[in-house]
Design a protein that fits this description.
0% strand, mainly alpha, 12 helices, Penicillin binding protein transpeptidase fold
Amino acid sequence: MKIFKIIIISLVLFLVIFCSYFLISGYNLYKSVLKETPLDVKINEIKSKSDYTKIEDVSPYFKDAIVAVEDHRFYTHDGVDLISTVKAIFTNVKNRSYVTGGSSITQQLAKNMYFTQEKKMVRKIAEMFMAYNLEKNLSKNEILELYINTIYYGSGYYSISSASKGYFNKLPIELNLDEASLLAGIPNAPSVYSLDVNPNLAYERQKHVISAMKEYNYITNEEYKSIIEK
């Protein structure tokens, strides 16, 4: 019985030390990149780009589509969607590999602004700290605006403006539901869903986007059918 208790205590201590190591390492990485480039400087760098687009100049269809498919609890969480994170952990454990990260839009923005695409625990924790910082200093609309201007849309398009013009020869504000839902599906896997590379896969992904929009009440049943049945 004493041996069993010793084993349990040892395991608990190991987990505490293990978690503490990653938390401290992640926090240190977060502070390090922030010290190197303060948040306001990084934001100004992004906004100074010639193709930067303000949120009010983007089609409401696209804004709704990207939130529905990427982070449907975006407007209610504080930077990290704990429900999605827990689900992602269980999925990764079940598959014994890094299948999904469960990242919120704010976390993805933090990654795009400051971190690499490496799927490492320390980077993931640093990303969470940065996400909370972003939520503390910016409104949801400001975060969404930065996000859609920094994600990759495939075919060399790194902003909503370049993607909208490149794929549809339209300004972002002119995107209709069909175009917006197509475009919103690409960032999940740009090399796979690019309209110039795999249009059929892009249309399959669009069905997932439009279903999410309907599920979270961004579109009517008639609008849903107009895309699904086209």
